């Protein structure tokens, strides 16, 4: 009897070895072939996206923007691969990895945003941008989290613990208006509205990531009392530290290119290589220090454009400008294809349809509380001729698309939260991303025409005048405004501090970090 049991156990072990994953793996040649097929499919989808985007722009088809078309291509190809017998070794090349997104795809997109940023409207509206990005994102996160929690308590939707609801509110508050901004450029909308939408979307990513990580720490350690108080402190530390590291790297690069003597004909290759490496150095330095690489590389891009760029030779200037525009376009298009394919391939929890429906409703309410509440605060301290118009507030509210940042954080929540909870959040986020990118992105042109903010790109609807010498928008103060004298004095003091910084930049920083004083000012005013 014992001999038969031993023989049976030996037979079972042999069967397990035959069906083990090690024996089921394809040979190395097969893996290389699968990798080639996967990369080939990605290149084909990129080519198709660029060609389709060109055709859509040429025929002025605004109801299907380029980002929406890329997402649709990824969804269609992913759906076909999901229902077919595609080999798993090929499908693994399309899995969305949040590390790959944060470390390789996001940096060139953010750097190009800062590198090509027009400083006049951005710095003129910097106070409003910071208000929307910090106060507004915090408000939207808390409102969304509280409403989702109350919806669970009243059995309207799938119930999640309060901290997990706040995590969902934080990740879903990250806006990604790539589609809206591209249509803004096509239609020629107001530059201040463009600066508000763009600036809020970039800075609020750092706020959303900081809030999500803080809530994730609270959830993992189950100590909500002290950590909630540290959210604002942690964000300020992250923002100030990231800004300092980004600006510092930008200044170092400016000094290097000024004194290293690289702007000669036979060293242009070295010059371009070093310039391309500095943005990644800034991003990875911030991430390695536990800061926000997004904020760091954004300000590195702004500083390098203002100071470092003028220290390059003319040929290198043309190359780096074209290179970063090219690499950011490739990354943006690939992100939406990558995301669409993964949405079609991932397993989703569609059983909680109520959670998806009410989440969409709640983020609309939270976005309204964010935009209209912050606009009210900004208008309280602005003179009458610099008030944010209601039509701009409506456009800003409508522009709150969710994209790759929210998707990446939701995918990370699958690993951070218990089984079922993270999957529900991921499914809801997926539905929100697809809905906002396709529907809201496609109807942006109609929205702009309905709000009558089309074609006023060069006008100054906020009562601002350009100061060609400083490169900033200087507000004109009306003595007859209804604002209190204390608020007017603060505004004048702020204006004086802005003018003082401009004079400091023109008289000291620009001569110290660059070799072409007058040309730099002119270029800075044009960008």
TrEMBL record:
Q: Extract the GO molecular function terms from the UniProt entry.
A: potassium:proton antiporter activity; sodium:proton antiporter activity
Q: Which GO terms describe its biological process?
A: regulation of intracellular pH; sodium ion import across plasma membrane
Superkingdom assignment: Eukaryota
Quote the catalytic activity from the record.
Answer: Na(+)(in) + H(+)(out) = Na(+)(out) + H(+)(in); K(+)(in) + H(+)(out) = K(+)(out) + H(+)(in)
Q: Which locations, inside or outside the cell, does it occupy? A: Membrane
Kindly report the protein's main subcellular placement as a broad class: membrane
Keywords of the record, alphabetical order, are: Antiport, Ion transport, Membrane, Potassium, Potassium transport, Sodium, Sodium transport, Transmembrane, Transmembrane helix, Transport
Q: Which residues form a coiled coil?
A: none
> Do the record's keywords include Ion transport?
yes
Q: Indicate the transmembrane segments per the record.
A: 34-56, 62-80, 100-119, 125-150, 232-257, 277-299, 319-341, 353-375, 395-414, 420-441
Cellular component GO terms, alphabetically?
endosome; plasma membrane
Ranges where the Cation/H+ exchanger transmembrane domain occurs? 50-449
Q: How does it sit in the membrane?
A: Multi-pass membrane protein
Family recorded in the similarity comment: Belongs to the monovalent cation:proton antiporter 1 (CPA1) transporter (TC 2.A.36) family.
Protein name as catalogued:
Sodium/hydrogen exchanger
Q: Which organism is it from?
A: Aquilegia coerulea (Rocky mountain columbine)
């Amino acid at each position: 009897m014992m001999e038969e049991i031993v023989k049976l156990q030996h037979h079972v072990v042999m069967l397990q070895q035959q069906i083990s994953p090690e024996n089921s793996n394809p040979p190395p040649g097969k893996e290389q072939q699968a990798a080639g097929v996967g990369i080939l499919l990605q290149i084909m989808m990129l080519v198709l996206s660029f060609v389709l985007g060109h055709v859509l722009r040429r025929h002025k088809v605004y109801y299907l923007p380029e980002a929406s078309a890329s997402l649709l291509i990824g969804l269609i190809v992913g759906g076909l691969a999901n229902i077919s017998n595609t080999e798993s070794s090929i499908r693994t090349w399309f899995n969305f990895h949040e590390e790959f997104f944060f470390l390789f795809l996001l940096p060139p997109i953010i750097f190009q945003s800062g590198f090509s940023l027009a400083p006049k409207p951005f710095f003129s509206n910097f106070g409003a941008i910071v208000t929307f990005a910090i106060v507004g994102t915090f408000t939207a996160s808390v409102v969304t989290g509280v409403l989702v929690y109350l919806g669970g308590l009243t059995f309207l939707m799938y119930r999640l613990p309060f901290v997990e609801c706040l995590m969902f509110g934080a990740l879903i508050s990250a806006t990604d208006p790539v589609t809206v901004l591209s249509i803004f450029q096509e239609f020629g909308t107001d530059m201040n509205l463009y600066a508000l939408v763009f600036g809020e979307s970039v800075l609020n990513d750092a706020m959303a990531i900081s809030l999500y990580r803080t809530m994730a720490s609270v959830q993992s350690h189950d100590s909500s009392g002290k950590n909630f108080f540290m959210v604002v402190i942690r964000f300020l530390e992250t923002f100030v530290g990231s800004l300092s590291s980004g600006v510092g790297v930008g200044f170092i690069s400016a000094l290097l290119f000024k004194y290293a003597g690289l702007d000669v004909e036979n060293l242009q290759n070295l010059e371009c290589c070093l310039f391309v490496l500095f943005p990644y150095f800034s991003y990875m330095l911030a991430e390695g220090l536990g800061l926000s690489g997004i904020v760091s590389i954004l300000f590195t891009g702004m500083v390098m454009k203002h100071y470092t760029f003028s220290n390059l030779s003319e040929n290198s200037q043309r190359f780096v400008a074209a290179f970063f525009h090219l690499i950011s376009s490739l990354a943006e298009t690939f992100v939406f294809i990558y995301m669409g394919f993964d949405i079609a391939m991932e397993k989703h929890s569609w059983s909680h349809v109520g959670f998806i429906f009410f989440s969409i409703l709640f983020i609309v309410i939270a976005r309204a509380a964010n935009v209209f509440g912050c606009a009210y605060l900004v208008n309280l301290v602005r003179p009458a001729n610099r008030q944010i118009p209601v039509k701009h507030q409506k456009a800003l509210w409508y522009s709150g698309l969710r994209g790759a940042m929210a998707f990446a954080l939701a995918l990370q929540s699958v690993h951070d939260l218990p089984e079922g909870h993270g999957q529900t959040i991921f499914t809801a986020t997926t539905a929100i991303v697809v809905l906002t990118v396709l529907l809201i992105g496609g109807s942006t042109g109609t929205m702009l025409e309905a709000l009558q903010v089309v074609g006023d790109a060069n006008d100054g609807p906020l009562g601002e005048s350009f100061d060609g010498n400083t490169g900033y928008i200087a507000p004109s103060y009306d003595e007859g405004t209804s604002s209190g004298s204390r608020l007017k004095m603060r505004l004048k003091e702020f204006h004086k501090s802005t003018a003082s910084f401009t004079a400091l930049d023109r008289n000291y920083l620009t001569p110290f970090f660059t070799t072409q004083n007058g040309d730099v000012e002119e270029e800075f005013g044009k960008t």
